[in-house]
């Protein structure tokens, strides 16, 4: 399990390519997107085309990594997604949005 968590943490850190990291940070800082328990980002309010493209790109990369981890560890994709969502919410910076109980709140 420790190896699984280590791999998951490493993958989460690698998910956002350096080119998108600033854009993601900006989107989070501006309250446009937030982390969810599902392991994926969502728009906090109706997204612009640019925000939607960012969400789609990052979420597609996350899903690919989650599927790789699930396959490698012979576990369900949903279990990996939920663990990743929990970790992402825990690591979210103060002032960023997280979704808990179906509602957005600032951490």
Task: Describe the protein.
With about 110 residues, the protein is α+β, with helices and mostly antiparallel strands. The chain has one domain (about 1-105). The protein is built from four helices and four strands, in the order ααββααββ. The chain has helices at about 1-15, 20-30, 50-70, 75-90; strands at about 35, 40-45, 95-100, 105. The chain has a four-stranded mixed sheet with strand order 2-1-3-4. Strand 3 (about 95-100) and strand 4 form a beta hairpin. Helix 1 (about 1-15) packs antiparallel against helix 3 and helix 3 (about 50-70) crosses helix 4. It is globular. Residues about 15-20 have low confidence and may be disordered.
Tell me briefly what this model is.
The chain is an alpha+beta fold and 107 residues long. It is built from 4 helices and 4 strands.
- Percent of residues in helices: 55-70%
Proportion of beta-strand residues: 5-15%
Distance between the first and last residues' Cα:
28 Å
Query: Residue-averaged pLDDT, rounded?
Result: 88
Radius of gyration: 13 Å
Number of helices: 4
Order of secondary-structure elements: HHEEHHEE
Low-confidence stretches are 16-22
Category by helix and strand content: alpha+beta
Number of DSSP strands?
Answer: 4
């Amino acid at each position: 399990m420790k190896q699984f968590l280590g791999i998951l943490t490493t993958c989460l850190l690698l998910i956002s390519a350096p080119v998108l990291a600033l854009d993601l940070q900006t989107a989070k800082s501006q309250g446009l997107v937030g982390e969810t328990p599902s392991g994926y980002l969502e728009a906090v309010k109706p997204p612009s085309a640019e925000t939607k493209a960012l969400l789609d790109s990052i979420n597609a990369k996350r899903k690919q990594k989650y599927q790789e981890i699930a396959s490698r560890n012979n576990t369900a994709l949903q279990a990996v997604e939920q663990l990743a969502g929990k970790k992402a919410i825990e690591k979210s910076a103060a002032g960023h949005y997280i979704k808990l109980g179906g509602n957005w709140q600032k951490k």
